[in-house]
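Lecture notes, unit on protein representations.

Consider one protein chain, 255 amino acids long.
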Amino acid sequence: LDADDILVVPEVMPALAQIAPDVPKAIFNQNGYLTLAPYSLNVDPKALVYSRPEVLGAIVASEDTREYLETLFPRLRVRRVHYGIDPRLFAFTRPKKRQIAYMPRKNRQDLHQVLIRLRLSGRLEGWDVVEIANCPETAAAAILRESAVFLNAGHPEGFGLPAAEAMRAGCVVVGYHGYGGREFLTERLAFPVVMGDIMAFADKVADVLTALESSPAALGRRVEEASRFITENYSPEREERDLVAIWSEFSSRTI
């Protein structure tokens, strides 16, 4: 590494910034709520990676994380990249199976409680439940394309990509926005639930299943609007424009 390079450091591994202290650095902060996780309660503010003189700025993936960093480090240059969701991989697909998909990577116990409550009440009769785990992106996308409902338990999130991908693929999304997903997992486009409210989560899923069985057209319009919103705001082209602008700016700066 030399002065013409830029070392990208993830928010959860700030110690990497100690490598080549004279080399410019950018912090890729995918989840603002992990920003302070590596530090002790009595950390010296000067020891924070964001305070290092060679740090050119931070790159974030949501307005929520941007606000988190800008309020914590007012002098830090924070730039946003909009994740691009592959329109072919997560293509809006109809018709859907009577299938509910979920990812257990966060708050697995919440999902299990919701699904068990629904099963004990008999509300899952006629519906398949599919866990998305330990599979390549192509397989996960295939499940989303065929599923009518996606349960989102990600919290806290820097953005919440699985929920956005599910919306792009035409799933009705029910669950937590994780704060980072507040910009798209809204009442207008999905069915947000307060974090940890298991009964409300299960009731909301039950209502969605009933609506899909009895009057799917009304929900269909919401799902189409949600997919369109994701397409318009999180395209690969926009991600490319953001990255070109960010790296052009950072590359022109000196430390």
